[in-house]
């Protein structure tokens, strides 16, 4: 039986699914199965995937159930001792599974291995690798503050760890990966591969750009997590909420900075983040958001005031 099961949930992913599967096929760790969960696609996704010639590939089709449900369905089909997930618009570097598997072999007490993330934008000049987090071992406190794994395409997880905490919560329409990681971190250590191995595509239609949905479900995840957290970690709750507002302010400025209402909403979110956790004012990250906020406002004001003269035919 394969050692690693790779689960790829996909809903209407015809534009990216072939490239995503290719990045899994090109892994230097070969003892894998590739499980595609076709989550009610109505485009050409299924037809494209069926054309792929690879004995390791298994395809299962269902009515649309949403991302956490699709991942759970993949888990039920998986036979590997280790499980990895990759969303249908993301990519991996070829050594991703090999390096993460080695990390879990080196640290048998770890239930999950993760890597750094490369944020890929349509304009390559905007792309960057985020190497700011180096948490390993008992990461529960750090994960309560923020989802430093950053996406659902990141970790390699022991099947035993998944069995110990259960599946993804199907009622969550966002942040279901953070909720899942928190339950794992409460029981298992994490291992870190210090290399950007997840290529995380960024676009205005991505889940992280749906800010109202993210704020709603992140609040649910935070409330649930701190209800389960020990008393000595309760002081982190305001910092956790502040991280959500800071992140949604960043996303709003990234994708919606040409509208006055969105700029005002980003300013409100950033103010809430600072009010909840004033130490945010000491971070370069926050300084950058403030500069971006001011710049966006000034640019918008310029466009509102400056009305070019129209030429008229006489």
UniProtKB/TrEMBL annotation:
Pfam families: Glyco_tranf_2_2
Superkingdom of this protein's organism: Bacteria
Residues in Glycosyltransferase 2-like prokaryotic type domain copies: 5-243
PANTHER family: GLYCOSYLTRANSFERASE (PTHR22916), UDP-GLCNAC:BETAGAL BETA-1,3-N-ACETYLGLUCOSAMINYLTRANSFERASE-LIKE PROTEIN 1 (PTHR22916:SF3)
Protein name stated in the entry: Glycosyltransferase family 2 protein
Provenance organism: Nostoc parmelioides FACHB-3921
């Amino acid at each position: 039986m394969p050692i690693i099961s790779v689960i790829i949930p996909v809903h209407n992913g015809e534009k990216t699914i072939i490239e995503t599967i290719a990045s899994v096929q090109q892994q230097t760790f070969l003892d894998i199965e590739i499980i595609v969960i076709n989550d009610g696609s109505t485009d050409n996704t299924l037809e494209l995937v069926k054309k792929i010639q690879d004995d390791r590939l298994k395809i299962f089709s269902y009515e649309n159930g949403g991302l956490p449900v699709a991942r759970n369905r993949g888990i039920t089909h998986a036979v590997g001792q280790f499980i990895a997930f990759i969303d249908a618009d993301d990519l991996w570097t070829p050594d991703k599974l090999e390096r993460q598997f080695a990390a879990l072999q080196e640290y048998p007490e770890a239930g999950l291995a993760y890597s750094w993330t490369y944020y890929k934008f349509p304009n390559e000049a905007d792309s960057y690798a985020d190497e700011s987090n180096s948490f390993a071992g008992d990461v529960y406190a750090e994960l309560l503050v923020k989802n430093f794994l950053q996406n659902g395409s990141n970790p390699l997880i022991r099947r035993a760890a998944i069995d110990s905490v259960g599946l993804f919560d199907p009622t969550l329409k966002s942040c279901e990966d953070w909720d899942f990681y928190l339950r794992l971190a409460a029981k298992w250590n994490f291992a870190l591969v210090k290399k950007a191995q997840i290529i995380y595509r960024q676009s205005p239609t991505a889940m992280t750009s749906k800010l109202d949905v993210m704020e709603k479900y992140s609040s649910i995840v935070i409330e649930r997590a701190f209800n389960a957290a020990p008393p000595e970690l309760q002081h982190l709750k305001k910092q956790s909420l502040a991280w959500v507002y800071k992140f949604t302010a960043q996303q709003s400025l990234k994708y919606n900075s040409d509208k006055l209402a969105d700029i005002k909403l980003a300013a409100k979110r950033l103010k809430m983040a600072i009010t909840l956790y004033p130490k945010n004012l000491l971070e370069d990250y926050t300084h950058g958001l403030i500069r971006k906020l001011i710049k966006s406002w000034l640019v918008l004001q310029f466009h509102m005031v400056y009305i070019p003269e129209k030429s008229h035919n006489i």
